Amino acid sequence: MLYISDLFLTCPLVEDRVGKRVSSTTGTDRFGDACIAYGKEAEKLAHKILELIALSLGLPAKRFVPFFEGKNMTFNRINYYRPCPNPELVLGKGCHTDTSSVTVVATNDVSGLEIKTREGTFLKVNPLPGSYIINLGEAMNVWSNGYYESSDHRAVAPKDRHRFSMAFSLGPAPDMMVEPLEELINEDHPRRFTGFKYGKFWRSRRHTSLLRLKEQNIRARHFKIRE
Ligand SMILES: O=C(O)CCC(=O)C(=O)O
Ligand SMILES: [Fe+2]
Predict the structure, then answer these.
(1) CA–CA distance from 213 to each of 92, 95, 156, 222, 224 (Å)?
(2) Strand 133-136 to strand 90-91: parallel, antiparallel, or no bridges (unpaired)?
(3) How far is the CA of 32 from the centre of ligand 2 (A)?
(4) Pairing of strands 113-116, 90-91
(5) CA-wise closest residue to 179 among 135, 151, 220
(6) Ligand 1 test: best mutation among 75, 123, 132, 165, most atoms within 8 Å of CB?
(7) Is 127 left (phi over 0), alpha (psi -120 to 50) or beta?
(8) Would you call 202 exposed, middle or buried from its count of C-beta atoms within 10 A (0-12, 13-18, 19+)?
(9) Strand locations in 60-172 (E)
(10) Which helix (H) or strand (E) holds 41?
(11) Which residue, 31, 65, 83, 84, has most beta carbons within 10 Å?
């Protein structure tokens, strides 16, 4: 299978988040500034979603906030998929899960994102004007002690139009241990995962993405405690 997502750009976000500003990959300063401005707003939305998730789990709304204070691995990625006359022969982006807590995805009006169901089929996610698509990542799978799952998804190639997407991924600090929250562990719902260091997990995953392996080398489920 050939993969054709071409432009894979990590945009500057909030300065000095991971110790540097990655403006060298982004061309003009105006573009960089727009990315930073967008990132700040997307970050607010991501935190709002984390609040709703916390409340849905019976936790205080701000329960996830401390995980993102100071240095963290939040970034914004722009994907570009060029039109392809035979989209069925190629894939834009292979099936994967995000490592993040939540990812806020914005796209132009061309569809392409597909979510994998439990049965293994793919459902098309049609872009709605003025809306965002939210993907849950592996960190949320573990923090929620399995109450929330991370979604497997892929992007298929467009046939006759250009497609852009922007994935804002909210991740904790690299040296943070991601483990199930104590409040979500009890006799009826025992601890489901051991845990992992977020930075190490992210780096291992990055190698897979680059090699475009069929099966991701590292997943939260590899840290599952056998029942
Ligand atoms: O292009 C899309 O809609 C999805 C991109 C994506 O899944 C990602 O960048 O992690
Ligand atoms: Fe993704």
Answers:
(1) 14, 10, 17, 17, 22
(2) unpaired
(3) 22
(4) unpaired
(5) 220
(6) 165
(7) beta
(8) buried
(9) 75-81, 90-91, 93-96, 102-107, 113-116, 122-124, 133-136, 153-155, 163-170
(10) helix 29-56
(11) 84
**Residue whose CA is at the smallest distance from ligand 1 atom 9:** 167
Going by pLDDT thresholds of 50, 70 and 90, the confidence category of residue 215 is: low
- In the prediction, which pLDDT does 31 show? 72
Lowest mean pLDDT among 34-48, 78-92, 159-173, 200-214: 200-214
Structure tokens at 127: 């872009």
pLDDT, tens only, 7-34: 556 655 544 443 334 444 445 567 777 7
Q: What is the pLDDT of residues 180-203, one digit of tens each?
A: 999 999 999 999 999 999 989 888
In this structure, the residues whose C-beta lies within 6 A of any atom of ligand 1 are 77, 79, 93, 98, 105, 107, 112-113, 153, 155, 165, 167
Nearest-atom number in ligand 1 for the CA of 79 is 1
Taking the CA atoms of residue 23, residue 26, residue 29 and residue 35 in that order, the dihedral angle to the nearest 10 degrees is -90
Type of residue at 182: E
